[in-house]
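Let's practice the habit of predicting before peeking. Look at the sequence and jot down your guess about where helices and strands might fall. Then scroll down.
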Amino acid sequence: MTDEIALGFDDALRLADRLVEEGFLHRDSLPELRLIDSIFHEMSGDDSTDRWTTAALSTDAGWGRARTLARQALAREGANASPLPHICVVR
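Done guessing? Here is the structure:
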């Protein structure tokens, strides 16, 4: 499940330049987004499977750094810091 976070981010990052061109994303947010991408790539080595566990989301330094960068980008985009709503997924 945690790898889906990085895969979804990678898919979204591919749209970032176009979102900047269309005025939906500040160009100044791109460095943070690219740093998050590089953190995820760094975490993807063969010997780093422990970094992709659910527990690692709250303990791993790479995930912590990615969260910090994401908060900075969200703040620049004008997103407030209120908690996300509870989401229930029905399968």
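How did you do? The chain has a mean pLDDT of 89.
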